[in-house]
Amino acid sequence: MKRFILKRLALMIVTLIGLSVVVFIVSRVAPGDPAKLAAGPDATEEMVQVIREEFGLDRPLVIQYTIYMKGLIQGDFGRSIRTRHLVWDDLKNFMPATFELVFVSISFSILFGILFGILSAVYRDTWMDHVIRFFTITGVAVPMFWLGIMLQLLFSAKVHLFPLGGRLDTMVLPPPARTHFFLIDSLLAGDWGTFANGFHHILLPAFVLSFPALASITRINRAEMLEVLHKDFVLNEKAQGISDRLIIFKYALKNALIPTLSMIGLRYGWMLGGTILVETVFNWPGIGNYAVGAAVYSDFQPVMAVTIILGLNFMIANLLVDLGYGFLDPRVKYE
Amino acid sequence: MHSGISMASTWNRWKKERESQIRDLALTFYTLRRSPLSVIGLTLVGLFLLVALIGPWIITHPGDIKGAVHIDQKLKPPSRAHLFGTDEVGRDMYSRVVMGTRLSLQIGLIIIFVAMGIGVPLGILAGYTGGWVNHLIMRITDIFLSVPGLLLALAIVGALGPGIKNAMVALSIVWWPGYVRLIQAKTLALREEAFIEAARSVGASKLRIIFSHILPNCTSPIIVKASMDMGMAILFAANLGFIGVGAQPPVPEWGSMISTGRNYLPDFWWMATFPGLAILVTVLGFNLLGDGLRDVLDPQSRGQIR
Fold first, then answer.
1. Contact residues, A window 83-112, toward B, CB-based 8 Å cutoff
2. A296 dihedral zone (left: phi>0; alpha: psi -120 to 50; beta)
3. Which residues in chain A (278-297) have CB-CB distances under 8 A to chain B?
4. Quick one: which of A217, A279, A307, B248 is 20 to 30 A from A73 by CA?
5. Chain A residues close to B162, C-beta within 8 Å
6. How far apart are CA B115 and CA B117, in angstroms?
7. Contacts of A152 (CB under 8 A, 6+ apart)
8. CATH number (domain holding residue B176)
9. A-chain residues within 8 Å CB-CB of B273?
10. Are A24 and A78 in contact (CB under 8 A)?
């Protein structure tokens, strides 16, 4: 077990280095000249040259990469060529918003995905099953950003049920920062008003972000539950008079959850990509929004940093998923 | 006369040689037809292809595709003259959504074919050669799969500059690793099969084994994945168009149309609504078809409860 984790961590570092190389190459073989873009349209050649030297863009690629990596190891993601901000400072500002949104969304989709999957399988071919299946089929096909816009149109513009975007109302001050997650911080401070406001703001974006994941988790959990419920051991348990509830929630679910877990891992990655869209639609001040803003101006350091941060996050999630298999099925051996 | 006979005989010979495949195809189609969801998928995909094909003949305002401006017609709600209304400079939304179909088809096909062109050979190479070649290819594949696809695409388009061509390049780069994974796993399993062993033992060359034994056995999973990916590639191109790094206005791409339309909400709701419905229907069609094909073509899940 320990060896497995160490091995996976080592592999993760190798993959991370590979990812940094890929992203670095992508950013530097680009045809656009970031120095020229940053200097503005009226800049003279000398001004562009100054920026080029300042950001080391005139050095050979290999040296640029070594400098970049040296910084990365110390947690230095470089400077934005456009705003001159340290990228790490920006990330510290924007990361909590993204992760708060992603955690709420993934928890929502896991919880309800598993629940709907069970309901759909247990009440197979009833109206409930049909409704849930219709939703799972359309859920993966609906463009997330469009769903967000349509919900804004309905619930924010026509009926004023939800705010259009942002994390809090402009009049509401953020709670004292401890975890930087507004929902948790406001509870820690005992500030129910701020909590309610934050919760009100996160509902729509989290719903939209979780939608495709919720649909596919439901779908796979339904299929697996159906299969498990037809296995001989379930029949045997029924014959022994074990209650339905115990069979479904303990014995069947635990078996069905193994494939569901790998779907959760996969969908978590999609969700990290999807934050880019949802943050854009709901004006959510996270790193997805930050990366889009930078990418449009060919400002590379922020985009590279966000790619690496979210890539790392996805790798950790995959490791957790693999460890989860062992928890669900003791026969799984880690080597 | 003479050529007529030989053509007929060639046709007959071809039919005889391919008899089993033709029967298989007929069976596939028959099984597909029995599942209502697959029929819906097939219909939606057929509709999509038809609209893409005859688009130029069913649009009402051809000039509006290229970016004509009629300020006097701007922001008109849906009516008989403009089925889906008009946009902020008076262009007919219906014509633009219809022509977006053709564009989406092109985008989807190009991305999938480039991804297959890179992914399938690499997957076979990795799976069949094994050893360090396999390791190297799979590690590189893992790197690309370690980061959310949309994010990597954003990074690449950010570097290349916004535009529909660059978006397609970016999405092709993001898409090929999936095919490597699929084909490598399939090849790895096939390599141990008795019929491959037999081919090897009678002295068939590597190339022959790959082209006439391994590749044909990979077609089913490739078709299933390609059908699913068609919808997803169109969706991702729309995603990039929406965040402003994909197709640029006035190109009639659905995502970028929604992006523009979003600025005119809530009063001019039709601008963002119709292109989104077009994406939804298209992606839904390809998903349902892909699902149906998987149930039919993938023997492991044939007859399984879904």
1. none
2. alpha
3. 280-281, 291-292, 294-296
4. A279
5. 296
6. 5
7. A164, A165, A204, A281, A282, B265
8. 1.10.3720.10
9. 150
10. no
CA distance B138 to chain A (A): 11
B6 & B70 share domain = no
Q: In this complex, is the C-beta atom of A300 within 8 Å of any C-beta atom belonging to chain B? A: yes
Q: Is A230 an 8 Å CB contact of chain B?
A: yes
Provide the pLDDT for residue A335: 66
Query: Tell me: the pLDDT tens digits for B247-268?
Result: 888 889 999 999 998 888 888 8
What's the sign of the alpha-carbon dihedral A89, A90, A95, A101? positive
Q: Which of B108, B147, B149, B115 shows the shortest CA–CA distance to B237? A: B108
Q: Does the pLDDT of residue B226 top 70, yes or no?
A: yes
Regarding whether B91 and B153 lie in a shared domain, the answer is yes
As given in the structure block, the two tokens for residue B146 are 């370690």
* Residues of B with Cβ-Cβ distance to A296 under 8 angstroms: 158, 162, 244-245
Rounded Cα distance between B218 and B184, Å, is 10
Q: Rounded CA gap, A31 and B45, in Å?
A: 37
Using CA atoms, how far residue B304 sits from A113, A231, A281, B185, in Å, is: 21, 13, 40, 22
**Residues B56 and B29 both lie in one domain:** no
Chain A environment of B272 (Cβ under 8 Å): 146, 149-150, 153
Same domain for B139 and B82: yes
Domains by residue range for chain A, with CATH: 96-285 (1.10.3720.10)
**B53-94 pLDDT, tens per residue?**
998 888 888 877 777 788 888 778 888 888 888 888 878 889
Do residues B164 and B267 both lie within one domain?
yes
Read off the pTM.
0.89
List of chain B residues whose C-beta atoms are within 8 Å of the C-beta of residue A27:
155, 159
**ipTM score for this prediction:** 0.89
Q: Do B117 and B143 belong together in one domain?
A: yes
CA distance B277 to A143: 9
Of the candidates B108, B71, B76, the one whose C-alpha atom is nearest the C-alpha of residue B94 is B76
Per the listing, tokens 């979210």 go with A310
Range of the domain at B15: 1-34
Mean pLDDT check: name the lowest of A59-63, A210-214, A330-334: A330-334
Contact B179, B123 (CB under 8 A): yes
Instruction: Name the helix (H) or strand (E) containing A314.
Output: helix A300-328
Please, what sign has the CA dihedral across residues A126, A128, A130, A132?
A: negative
pLDDT for residue B306 is more than 50: no
Total count of domains within chain B: 2
A292 → closest Cβ in B146, B154, B231: B154
Instruction: Specify whether B167 is located in the same domain as B184.
Output: yes
Same domain flag for B85 and B174? yes
